[in-house]
Design goal:
heterodimer, A: 115 residues, seven-stranded mixed sheet, 11 strands, B: six-stranded mixed sheet, five-stranded antiparallel sheet, 51% strand
């Protein structure tokens, strides 16, 4: 049981480039989340999904896109990378109980630098 | 508005002492709270959670206290060890459809354990 797996672990992008951060979970969780964490700060929600085919915006969705075609995978797409998107990105999943979030499990993060 | 915040950004304790990390929240409707531990370079790790129908919950060396009257949450760590050094986050969620599927995160408290 690998839990939540994120790839890549590190990436350097040039301004204007695009990339996809991959996230997969093998716990059959319905809920999945993408967060970003800036140095010395808490986590900010970018997008989340409560099931395959369903996604919704979080606090800071601008500059990002997501899709959820399967229960397992929740990729995060960055279009036209900007220096403000330099951050550590975490993917998380949660079983959910009666339509509510429960304990969330996190991946190890992707450290992205935009230069 | 809704917010989750921490009273102390840093906390330094001696090994073997008990640690208390505090968290304030402003949304009286919030009914589920979680504490996470984040070690340097890693994703957040679940410690303990509590629902608003409880005022205390104990785990292994950790206790979470919830005071709904003053909207205050605390995490107590008994016999603090060097391995407890990390940043601790509290997070909350509310009961309403939509916001009960995502967590609102505090800024974090850095715990340093001195040998």
């Amino acid at each position: 049981n690998a839990g939540v797996t994120q790839t890549p672990k590190f990436r350097i992008l040039k301004i204007g480039q695009s990339m996809t951060l991959q996230c997969t979970q093998d716990m059959n969780h319905n809920y999945m989340y993408w967060y970003r964490q800036d140095p010395g700060m808490g986590l900010k929600l970018i997008y989340y999904s409560v099931g395959a085919g369903i996604t919704d915006k979080g606090e800071v969705p601008n500059g990002y896109n997501v899709s959820r075609s399967t229960t397992e995978d929740f990729p995060l797409r960055l279009e036209l990378a900007a220096p403000s998107q330099t951050s550590v990105y975490f993917c998380a999943s949660s079983m959910g109980l009666r339509g509510r979030i429960t304990e969330a499990f996190f991946g190890q993060g992707t450290r992205l630098t935009v230069v | 508005g809704e917010s989750v915040g921490l009273h102390l950004p840093t906390l330094s304790v001696q090994e073997g002492d008990n640690s208390i990390i505090n968290c304030a929240y402003s949304n009286s409707a919030s009914d589920y709270f979680i504490w996470y531990k984040q070690e340097s370079g890693k994703g957040p790790q679940f410690i303990i959670d509590i629902r608003s129908n409880m005022d205390k919950r104990q785990g292994q060396r950790v206790t979470v206290l919830l005071n709904k009257t003053v909207k205050h949450l605390s995490l107590q760590i008994a016999a603090t060890q060097p391995g407890d050094s990390a940043v601790y986050f509290c997070a909350e969620t509310g009961p309403n459809a939509g916001n009960n599927r995502k967590l609102i995160w505090g800024l974090g408290t850095s715990l340093a354990v001195n040998p």
